Amino acid sequence: MRLWSRGSVLTRTLCRGLLGAILAVAGTGALAAADDDSRRDGYRYYQIGDLAAPRPAPARPGAMLVGGGDWPYPAFRWLIERAGHGRIVILRASGSTEAQDEFFNDIGGITAAQTLVFEDRRAASDPRVLEIVRQADGIFLAGGDQSNYVRYWRGTPLSRALDAHVRAGKPIGGTSAGLAILGAHAYGAMDGGSLTSADALNDPAGPQLTLVDDFLHLPYLERVLTDSHFGKRERLGRLIAMLARLAQERGRDDLVGIGVDEYTALCIDGDGIGRVFSGNGGYAWVVGPQPAAELYAAGRPLSLRAVPVRGIGAGSVLHLSDFRVERPAFSALYDVEAGRLIRRDANIAPTASP
Asked: Could you give all domains of the chain from N- to C-terminal order, each with its CATH number?
């Protein structure tokens, strides 16, 4: 029996090797054919579920801001409920079916999911792409590199279709890079890297701090700059620096930053009420409005005082109409002295402080 079992293993091994050789000679054969099936002009397309099924319930407006990392499923169920348990369309510029599989198989409660993976700007004008977005009940912007989203989508029919989706009272969400572009202002990462707080504070007027706007236009985020992976990657300093730059360039004193921790989401309903869902006790951080910088100049470290920072936890409520916070998880004032971030006054300290 052992000899037979060994022979079976050997036979299977030889067969797998032969199959691999055949696929290699054939240019990966079935795998290449499957990949070809997904390819379109400037993008790839995937789907799962029943595209013909009607939406089970009405759609309602909402925005889900996810900080990155693992998904907090209660927030995603909130988005699905807002989408009327209908069809979710995932937009991305890397990867393939990961998010749609997680939506459909792991979370469930939707009729179908479709994925558009953008590889070129021309795809953002493709009539088939625009029709898929138009028919979406909910839209989710995946993580990756937000500079691709800026290059591929900004100023295109797709960006206008996303605005139309929101105006139609249907929900939208994003994680990591997908969150970064949901605010009226965003760090575009056009410098090719991920800007650190130290570098941003040391030269907020420098070329590495690349900001974009006039991209997406979501209600209640009109004066908001969004950021992700917030506490873990210590991004409070860079968000303060980005707000200082925007205030200086635009002559504004009403801008607000919202940073979201990993495994955490800030969900905003159609009335502008925001609540946090987190799998690890994370927060959404509300930064500002902040005072004018005492020192802001190209090549010089930033200096300013008394930047207000508040934490939105599981028991908090954020009113985005005026950025009032009920039951903040923590609140603090921060100074920046010659590019160095200093917390000068705080009550309940955050678990992941910068």
From this structure: 44-182 (3.40.50.880), 197-209+222-354 (3.40.50.880)
